[in-house]
Amino acid sequence: MAEKTKLYVLKDKAVPDVLLRVMEAKKLLDSGKCPSVQEATDRVGISRSSFYKYKDDIFPYHENGRGKTINMVIQMEDEQGILSQVLSAIAANGANILTIHQSVPINGLASLSISADVPSEKMDLTHMVDEIEAIDGILYAKILARE
User: Fold this and answer.
1) If DSSP codes are grouped into helix, strand and coil, which group holds residue 128?
2) Phi–psi pair at 141, nearest 5 degrees
3) pTM of the full predicted structure?
4) Is there a contact between 65 and 147 (Cβ–Cβ < 8 Å)?
5) By the 8 A CB rule, do 61 and 28 touch?
6) Which one of 8, 11, 76, 84 is most buried, counting C-beta atoms within 10 A?
7) pLDDT tens readout for residues 58-99
């Protein structure tokens, strides 16, 4: 069984400096201002190892009064029926899928990117992520953004 993921919302002053710098480096890479991880980490003053250690664990939280769209990424085994179970779990939690993109499986693993409209900003997304991670064949599920 997959370990449960707990999510927290913190004010930036409570977040360790290294994590904030990882976010800065990710923005530089995403915007194209820095073409390489080495250049981005040099620019924000952290080591590459710190970047790689935390890059998948910190994401910006976008609070918006009107927006209810979440973007998530799921790593899963390439087995029949897993995608169906994921979609069922999302629907059971009242979310409406807007887009789905599944990569071509490599070495028996596939990445899934989903955008979904959630019914309420007060919806317990942690519960939905935990349900998805509990599915046999799911390696991890993470919410990347909420807009």
Assistant:
1) helix
2) -140, 130
3) 0.55
4) no
5) no
6) 76
7) 887 755 444 488 999 999 999 999 999 999 999 998 889 999
d(CA 130, CA 135): 9
How far apart CA 27 and CA 43 sit, in angstroms, is: 12
- Residue pair 22/50 in contact (Cβ under 8 Å)? The answer is yes
Residues facing residue 117 across a β-bridge: 69, 96
Q: 69-146 has which CATH code?
A: 3.30.70.260
Lookup: tokens for 132: 């998805």
The two tokens of residue 142 are: 């993470």
Token pair 């981005």 is found at 40
Q: Tens digits of per-residue pLDDT, 103-147? A: 999 999 999 999 998 877 666 788 889 999 999 999 999 988 887
Q: Where are the domains of the chain?
A: 12-54, 69-146
CA quadruple 127, 132, 138, 139: dihedral sign:
negative
Cα separation, 57 vs 13, whole angstroms? 17
Sign of torsion, CA 66 129 106 39? positive
